Amino acid sequence: MASALAAAREAALEGEVPVGAAITLEGQIVAVAANAPRRLHDPTAHAEMQVIRAAARLLARDRLEDCDLWVTLEPCAMCAGAIAHARIRRLYYGASDPKGGAVEYGPRFFSQPTCHHRPDVYGGIGAREAGDLLRDFFAARR
Amino acid sequence: MASALAAAREAALEGEVPVGAAITLEGQIVAVAANAPRRLHDPTAHAEMQVIRAAARLLARDRLEDCDLWVTLEPCAMCAGAIAHARIRRLYYGASDPKGGAVEYGPRFFSQPTCHHRPDVYGGIGAREAGDLLRDFFAARR
């Protein structure tokens, strides 16, 4: 989660909403990525999407069933869907997101009968630091 | 929708689940893409994701509020989330997807309070041809 938080801090410096993610395999980091939709002109470029794409490319396969994903914010519906498609083993996330989250909030996607893979989910990991980064970012833009 | 169906047929020839998508702006096609997660080693590479990324890259912006998306199958949660993030104006889709859809089925994402943009939605466009393509594909693999 330290690497994901570092990526989130870098995103803030680029003017992007500060969210970062990492993927690990057997305890080793495979890929780290930050939220970057504005910089990349890509509305799908959330941190989770970027890190899943990077890890799948590096491992040359489209299923990451032995990988764990760490992200500083509760995933949205798009990212929760991608986590299920990628068959991620464990999901660790930081701050909860009542406005846009899809794990504890909104569609609670992993509890839907149309969700075909449910990772083990651990919320609240590094939540204070992840939440502070987001609050500071939005406070500075007001 | 004819272009999206053509892309779906090409996906089947590549051994990918046959789903295709197109994005139009003022009645002109901006981008066409097919489902390609296996070929690209990218679990996020559904047709809708590929076409949104291509159109955003071409238009050099991360919001496509003046664009319409055409896809041969009801979008899943990942793709419905991406459609909302991209601020797509109108969504036209073909076959319904009771097993994995997120528009009429499962999370019905565009009706969730955590969904921040709802396109106008038109289902059942070219549904018979889109559904036949999927049925033929899965029947041939059994």
Automatic annotation (TrEMBL), chains A, B:
The keyword Metal-binding applies. Zn(2+) binds at residues 46, 76, 79. Transmembrane segments: none annotated. Keywords: Hydrolase, Metal-binding, tRNA processing, Zinc. The active site is at 48 (proton donor). Its EC number is 3.5.4.33. It comes from the Bacteria. Catalyzes the deamination of adenosine to inosine at the wobble position 34 of tRNA(Arg2). This is tRNA-specific adenosine deaminase. The gene is tadA.
